[in-house]
# Entry
Amino acid sequence: MKKLAVLVAGLALLVAPAASASRAPTAAEAKSIHDTVVGFYGYWWYYGKNSLADKMKVFGIKVSTVDTHWAMASLTGPKGVGRPALMDRVLLYHGVGRWIVADAPSSEFIGCKVAPPAVTRDLFRGLGGC
# Structure
């Protein structure tokens, strides 16, 4: 009986971290998040007839398992006229029927004043923190 208790405790330690790890998005989530990020940066960074938003690459999309309303994505964009190449991470929130960019990089860690601390730990594990 004692061996069984030790085995169960050991398995719980192995399984517990996975329960709070972020997950890959579904195909529908990935498309919606991609379109949201490109639309957001396409408007703010590359607005107008010289738009380079179609050349942006969105990758590293993760959805929080702590609260599936939250996600993060990494992106790169081409060097624009008078602008360096873009590389950022964004925090997204799924509200009523769609994803929105909830926080973009600033002088502070992303998401610190927007998302619950457990969500930022889940999504940005190893990338710095609040």
